[in-house]
Specification:
alpha/beta; Rossmann fold; globular
Length: 155
């Protein structure tokens, strides 16, 4: 049986260290424990590592150490992912200033993930973006991708 593919955006490992939002931190920790069991197929992209690279130490190293605990599929950026991200902007689902978010979505689609988990409700895990992503998935013949807040993901 094939494992459910889950794409993690940068907000997920980031919230492992967010003491200022204890409920999100706790939920992220519970998910992280579950992800280490290999029940799911976790997907992480070059985009996440680029964003982590801009963090200050020791947070950067702490996030890298947590990611190393996972068995994950790595997605490198390529022309098709860039094209998908540009199409998301062209169709107005997100703006140019959200290019990183568009790349995250494109990587999740390209990797044929079933879910993209993100704490970013304003730009990603909301009805409008999910509707647009569904249309993009149809255009590019990808399976449906659902963007969820970790609170809405059942473990």
């Amino acid at each position: 049986m094939r494992k459910t593919r889950i794409y993690l955006d940068t907000t997920i490992p980031n919230h492992l260290f967010h003491d200022d939002v204890p409920e999100k931190k706790k939920r992220t920790q519970l998910l992280w424990e579950e992800f280490q069991t290999d029940i799911y197929e976790i997907v992480i992209s070059e985009v996440l590592f680029r964003e982590i690279g801009r963090c200050r130490e020791p947070k950067r190293q702490n996030m890298v150490e947590q990611i190393e605990k996972l068995n994950y599929v790595y997605v490198s950026l390529n022309e098709e992912i860039d094209e998908i991200a540009d199409e998301i902007i062209k169709r107005g689902y997100l703006t140019k200033r959200h290019k990183i978010d568009c790349l995250q979505i494109a990587c999740a689609l390209y990797s044929r993930s079933k879910y993209l988990l993100s704490w970013n409700y304003d730009d990603l895990a909301n009805h409008k973006t999910n509707k647009g992503v569904s249309e993009i998935a149809n255009i590019y013949h990808f399976p449906t991708l659902e963007i969820l807040l970790p609170f809405n993901f059942k473990i």
